[in-house]
Amino acid sequence: MAIGLVLSLSSTAIVLQTLGEKGLIKSDGGQAGFSVLLFQDVAVIPMLALIPLLAIPELADLSHTVAESASHVAEAADADHAEGGMSLVAGLNGWSTALVTIAAIATVILGGSYLTRPIFRFIATAQLRELFIATALMMVVGIALLMTLVGLSPALGTFLAGVVLANSEYRHELEADIEPFKGLLLGLFFITVGAGINFGLLGDDFVIIAGLTIVLITLKMAVLYTFGVIFKLRGSDRWLLTVSLAQAGEFGFVLISFTVANSVIPTAVADQLLLIVALSMLLTPLLFILYDRVIAPRYIAQQEREEDSIDESNQIIIAGSGRVGGLVDRMLRVSGYSSTVIDFNSAQIDMLKKFDRRTYFGDATRPDLLHAAGIGEAKLLVVAIDDKEQITELVRYAVRQYPNLHVLARAVDRHHVYDLWAAGCRDVVRETFDSSVRMGRSAFQALGIDSSKALKMAEAFTATDREVMVKVADAYDPEIPAMENELYISRVIEVRNIWEVDLANELKDILAKP
Q: Do the beta carbons of residue 411 and residue 428 sit within 8 Å?
């Protein structure tokens, strides 16, 4: 059972980093993998409470050798510390140890939930970033120390500290503060994993270790694939889940040292487990290469053949059925218009079907699919997909191939507006602009300005901003980064100096009128 618990975990550090780098974290398979990893991290807590109950008295005299068998894992020091230093569980039996462990974890979670917010709120009043970071580090170290005193791993303590800090409204600031160190520390972790491999033992038992590693990966892939089928993941998403979680995880090192310290498994077995865990993690990049070069291309081609056949022809085509395209579609439908909606997110389509919304599965950037949707006879194309580059590509194609088609495009940011303008689109809507202007209008009202005047001020700002963008658009070059385009920068400064004065005078006039 202990070995099964150790090998059931997967590597959160490797998988999330890789999925993020490859842009797969938001896919159905990436989201499924993230959910499993999150649950595994939480499941470590009951595992650590259960393992002492599995202790074998005959192995007690072997537990002191854990530091030698797992010297590359920092958590192995817990066993030495429990024997020679302070401990809250020294001399307790398995059941007592489990109860003390659960009590310590509950204290951290419950106490942190109620104390974190007022503490950080008080610290934030000093407006010192260094004090803020120091307080967070003090909490992390303190919780890690408490976990050490009950015989658990400092790594588990830092995980619990993260859970506690996530309950604070300052979690985003904390995340921003530690972001510069994340990549460095993650690299250090991988260095310790690689440097700690016992090459002597690996050379002596290479066939056994390599064979067991392959068996582990194969078995986990079989289990994951089965669950992918059960939970209705499709195509490449099912394989992404299968491949990404097939290795053992970094918490396996913690559990291995913990099992030896608690006389659950012998040191010789622990040595082999450490190698199997490390090798499976080192093989993970090869599994992702296999997915990228063999599995994903195969299913991309298959997805193209399995796209829905569009059996209706409407004068309105909407590319994307998310939070933007879906709202546009609802407005058009209640007004009596019919639209053909195309989306490439299978989960989104399945959700819409439950609400009796017809959406076609397919890649709206493909010319043949647009032709099948009747773009040649359509009057309006609404481009509301998420990807910035795909929006620009689709707009450029539609404007060039169908000059009589009205293209309404979603822009991600201000510079994207210029990209779409250069592509020939003249009806561009910034996805956050209108909501931001509404917030500005509400801010005016909160400051005591009459609602009718606040509305006129917001309208004046909107009209001026759009006029300025048109004046600057011809200086923007999509082939040159904005910060390197001297003509664009000088034009922005020139126009801004004029429109800010004019707009300020216009707003003053609005406020002065009765």
A: yes
- The sign of the dihedral angle between the CA atoms of 257, 258, 263, 269 is negative
Could you tell me if 360 and 340 are in contact, meaning their C-beta atoms sit under 8 angstroms apart? yes
Q: For the chain, first and last CA: distance in Å? A: 79
Domains identified in the chain and CATH numbers: 2-302 (no CATH), 307-430 (3.40.50.720), 432-514 (no CATH)
Instruction: Give the integer Cα–Cα distance in Å for 44 and 158.
Output: 13
Which pTM does this prediction carry?
0.52
Residue 172, Cβ density class (10 Å: 0-12 exposed, 13-18 middle, ≥19 buried): exposed
> How many whole angstroms separate alpha carbon 65 and alpha carbon 152?
17
Alpha helices per DSSP H over 66-149: 66-69, 77-84, 94-124, 129-149
CA distance 336 to 317: 15
User: What is the DSSP track for 237-285?
Assistant: HHHHHHHHT-S--THHHHHHHHHHHTTSS-HHHHHHHHHHHHHHHHTHH
pLDDT of residue 94: 66
What CA–CA distance (Å, rounded) separates 207 from 187? 29
Cβ contacts of 316 within 8 Å, gap of 6 or more: 332, 337, 338, 339, 340, 378, 379, 380, 381, 382
What is the radius of gyration, based on Cα positions, of the chain? Answer: 29
The predicted model gives 138-146 an average pLDDT of: 85
Distances (CA, A) of 491 to 141, 440, 474, 499: 52, 26, 10, 12
CA–CA distance from 423 to each of 83, 325, 389, 472, 488 (Å)?
A: 70, 21, 12, 15, 17
Beta strand extents in 14-93 (DSSP E only): none
Let me know if 499 is exposed, middle or buried by CB neighbors in 10 A (0-12, 13-18, 19+). middle
DSSP single-letter state for residue 75: G
- Residue pair 360/306 in contact (Cβ under 8 Å)? The answer is no
Rounded to whole angstroms, how far apart are CA atoms 460 and 177?
Answer: 38
pLDDT of 74: 40
- Pick the range with the lowest mean pLDDT from 250-259, 384-393, 414-423: 250-259
> What's the angle, vertex CA 131, arms to CA 130 and CA 135, rounded to 5?
120
What percentage of the chain exceeds 70 in pLDDT?
A: 89
The arrangement of strands across the sheet holding 339-343 comes to 360-361, 339-343, 316-319, 380-383, 406-411, 428-430
Phi/psi for 360 (5° steps) reads: -95, 135
